[in-house]
Amino acid sequence: MPPRTTPSTSASPATDVLFRILIGGIAVAIPFATAAWLGGNAVTFLTDTGPRAPFQPADALLHPHELWPNTGHTALTIGTLVFPITLLLATAALAARLYLRHKSGSKGRKAVKGMATRRDIEPLLAKQITAKAQSLRPSLAENDPKRIDPKQTGILLGDLAGTRCEVRMGYEDVAVAIMAPRSGKTTCLAIPAVLNAPGAVLLTSNKAAGDAYTATLEARGKVGLTWSMDPQQIAHAPREMWWNPLADATTLEGANRLAGHFVAASVDASNAGDFWSKAAQNVLAQLFLAAAVDKRPITDVMQWLAFPADRTPLDLLRDHRFDAVAAQLKGTVEGPPETRDGIYETARQYAACLLSADIAAWITPQADVPEFKPTRFVQTRDTLYLLSKDGGGGASALIAACADSVMRTATAHAERAGGRLDPPMLAILDEAANVCKISDLPDLYSHLGSRGIIPITILQSYRQGQKVWGDTGMDAMWSAATIKVIGSGIDDPDFADKLSRMIGDHDVETVSTSTSDSGTSKSVSMRQERIMPADRIRALAKGTAICLATGMRAAMLTLRPWYKEPGADEVSAASARASKTITARAIAKAAPAQDDFGQAA
């Protein structure tokens, strides 16, 4: 006897399609009929041909002349047919436009399954970041949290992807940002941070026009003084300041740090410890100390380097009771000539920028311009712009030395002020691997945040940091950073895989369907899968970034460029004015040279 067939109770595909068509038709017909009723009443009112009809949308669509018998045929056709169609098409077009805009704007910016949700990064959101700011800053402690400007509570990093929740790093965090060129490191991180900083700001850069310098110069000038150190004339800034690099070199430790900046600017971390580099650093430190204790300009060091037999630095060291240092210098000078000459020639190369009169003018006493003093700067809302070209050699050594002096001075002032700066000082080290090679920056990261000094080191790649600070140094800075921001353009496969492993895995549900003579069965299994594989990190969309915060799950951020924020028009106009000023100064400097060339020709 054949098996009995049980009729299926599920709807057939054709029935399902018809049902959907029916629902869709109703969804269109009701608004269309309602629009026809509104249009009919509107033309009746405008033509003054009778009273308004009651709400009968079906009759308005099918039998309009019965509702409005006194209204003309043409007018009624416009009101009950043309108007609804036009309204329907306009609504559909608007909806399509909004959908496409949303789809385009959210491409690559949606929440990623397995990454941090709002609950996971609560300490970086408004409520907790405000409470944290009140505990860190006595000036905010007594204020109503609802009345505190968010800019006073932390540095905006972006929005949590898929939401409008602002994610901020607090004023005790220290950050490292690894972002490729044109991935938003300046427009989305550096410029907004400078514009909204509550206290003093230190910014290093290798560009001027159209960059953070021009975008923030005018705005920061309204809250404090702006100091521009531009020894290589990137912005063609007039020399309106001078800074004494020997002010912190009156001790052997300070002199050795200053010499270390000249060495770091000229050699990579892998070569900084060889014999010639170390010996040259020692000689530079001894000569810097001799000049500093006698209050001489740093340019005197180049004269002593040119003539190793000059006994002036030896006498100065002995006069100020640095006998041991003088003995070491004497030992080098009186050593084998070939060794001495090699050491001094290496030191001359490291300090070669001091031979330039244009550069030396920024670091030697000038009667007609004020002296930049870090001790005063760290107590104000002033802004210091340190500009140098890529591979600037000794010029970048001066930039690194000045930045280091400011941060160390700020640390000392914070210790005297109860432990922290209030308001905090922001140090944005943009292009740090090119223009601000502070050799022990990874070590400084361990305590700067606790003093209210907030460094943000911006690099183009992880390997760039390894080249400057070595594998150990870069790993130390990466580990010490409480906030890590990774933007688009990560093309290093090893680093991308490292990030992928740090972001972690998540459970993925796999459904398997099998069919046999006895029927169809489904089974569900779980497997581990990378939340963001290395190839997906490499393809990270512009305008997005991964945020790794200490003790929290990795979060996907939607970056917020300054030109999309309130007040962007004013900032843009100010940037344009500053850029034009730079261009005008460049042209003015070039004109005499052209005239001289023409006369010579």
Automatic annotation (TrEMBL):
Q: How does it sit in the membrane?
A: Multi-pass membrane protein
Q: Which GO terms describe its cellular component?
A: plasma membrane
Q: What is its main location?
A: membrane
Question: Which SUPFAM superfamilies does UniProt cross-reference here?
Answer: P-loop containing nucleoside triphosphate hydrolases (SSF52540)
Subcellular location per the Swiss-Prot or TrEMBL entry = Cell membrane
Q: Where are the transmembrane segments?
A: 17-38, 75-100
CDD domains attached to this UniProt entry: TrwB_TraG_TraD_VirD4 (cd01127)
Keywords per UniProt: Cell membrane, Membrane, Transmembrane, Transmembrane helix
Query: Does the UniProt entry include the keyword Cytoplasm?
Result: no
Source lineage = Bacteria, Bacillati, Actinomycetota, Actinomycetes, Kitasatosporales
Task: Tell me which residues make up the TraD/TraG TraM recognition site domain.
Answer: 424-541
Q: What is this protein called?
A: TraD/TraG TraM recognition site domain-containing protein
